[in-house]
Amino acid sequence: MQPLSPTRRSTIRRNAQRARSARSELYAALDAGLACHLGVVLDGAPVVLPTAYGRVDDTLYLHGSTGARILRAAVEAPVCVTVTHVDGVVIARSVFHHSMNYRSAVVHGHARLVTDDAERRVGLRAVTEHVAPGSWEHARQPTRKELAATAVLALDLAEASLKVRTGPPVDDDEDVAAGGRWAGVVPVRTEFGQPEPCPLLPSDTATPPHVTTRSPHESTRIDA
Amino acid sequence: MQPLSPTRRSTIRRNAQRARSARSELYAALDAGLACHLGVVLDGAPVVLPTAYGRVDDTLYLHGSTGARILRAAVEAPVCVTVTHVDGVVIARSVFHHSMNYRSAVVHGHARLVTDDAERRVGLRAVTEHVAPGSWEHARQPTRKELAATAVLALDLAEASLKVRTGPPVDDDEDVAAGGRWAGVVPVRTEFGQPEPCPLLPSDTATPPHVTTRSPHESTRIDA
Prior knowledge:
Two copies of one chain form a homodimer. By secondary structure, the first copy, chain A, is α+β, with helices and mostly antiparallel strands. Chain A has helices at 23-31, 69-74, 117-131, 135-138, 144-148, 173-178, 209-212, and strands at residues 19-20, 35-42, 45-56, 59-65, 78-91, 99-110, 112-113, 150-156, 159-165, 184-192, 196-197.
């Protein structure tokens, strides 16, 4: 597994000590997310929209309606896909040193429109399983018509960075010495709640294990 | 309060029934977020990074180091700021109808560099209070040097949209009739944990009310 090798635009300059170079940590941050933010350039202006994604090795798959403007704008064009976890609010003794604990994976590249049928299924499966593990096997498979209405995009993870902040606030020595002000971290967690069955399900329908046993995403937090 | 009046690029085309037009709902979605995703165009390519923000009426404030490339790229240039809440994973009877429940606020515009000292303080206060309510009064105020190192940007909420999906999956009638497959929603919540005091605090330091009483952000969820 190659470490992350920054290119010019994937080099983290601000707070460079927060940059991580282990590809495994990039994978972990991507795999722990639910939605990414996809950025494209449309008529010279940036457009940033949330969307689902999935990962297979070093490829990130996105999908959407073939009619979606943002997906059409992403094909063979420069895109940026960002997955962010806010892990805590960092409360410092000074306003200036307030911060957040976070993990932020940023991927630059050209999105490739997947045309091969087998890879399209791989990509759709990855997106489905990422958002709803176990659903690909449990749910009805896509029909030819549904597949035709769905665009699948692939983005290589070659040009990616991961920035992570953890730990307590970093205050100026004078502020620590002065005392009298609270400082610390308020953790932020993303958690899954009790599944809410569809009202159209027969009332005696059991919730299957792949839905009930889903572990909270926060369990995949990266430690410092 | 003016309703949201879509321009060409803030008109929601895909699943247009999910578009909301009440400005109060836009405010609620923005106010309930922790980080936004700021998109800019840098060397012809999109760059999307998470950052803190705050709102005062119809102005969104961003801040950062005066040395940050993305902030410099945002000044007087087209930007897109997106705040997304993932509220649930929508598990359908078919792979095709899988979805997410979400609220997504998208703001287009040109970011203005705030140069007036009074407005700079208003902006910084808004960002601080958004992330850590009560901190502006409790923490040490910024020094002249700290202020000089901080850029404050303002973005008008004139060109903004809000897209919201709520409720159970929408499956094809045949799949509902066929039965045998679970469908429903797994709620996703963002929650605050127990405050973790800075290790440098004296051990008898009480955690102040503005930190302990923070209510979970999910309490501001928008109902259908």
